[in-house]
Amino acid sequence: MTRHWMRLCIVSLAVILLVGCSSVEEQAADGIENAKIVFQGDAEKANEKVGNLKVFLPTGFAIEDASDQTNILLSKGKDSYILFVNPNELPGSRLYYDLMIADTNLKIVEKNTFEQNGRFGFAAIIQNSEDNFELITSIGGIKLTTISKQHNIALNLEHMMKIVRSISTN
Length: 170
Known about the structure:
This protein is α+β, with helices and mostly antiparallel strands and 170 residues long. The protein has helices at 2-20, 24-40, 95-102, 153-166; strands at residues 48-50, 53-55, 62-63, 71-76, 79-85, 107-116, 119-127, 132-139, 142-149. Helices cover 34% and strands 33% of the residues. The strands form 2 sheets. A 7-stranded antiparallel beta sheet has the order 3-4-5-9-8-7-6, with helices on one face. Strands 1-2 form a two-stranded antiparallel ribbon.
């Protein structure tokens, strides 16, 4: 009887581990799709302000004290995010995307571009080290970056695009 329970526990643990672990490719594909859906949807209503800039921050995100209107430092727990806002770039600007593509030293795992109503955006996952990935979401002259563990890629990209999508530089 004890062996039966032992086998049942081992099988259950194996199933939980397999379900909980998804590959980088799966996380990247889900994250890119999440970012696309947010990009194409309605912008979240701003709930924070930095100078004249209004921004939506999902639950758990905070603005760091050293932020200004063009370089906003965000945090969520131990994770840091850098939000760049270039008010001179229009929503259709491809500047950040073109700069990323031109950098031949980057190991881009996945990227996708989005266009809608004169806006250009993209989401990208870049291999930073064996365990860490740089995530980028951008619309026009607004770009948000962070370093993420593999298991957080999809959710991070969704939250990041919500933040970027909420900002209006008009």
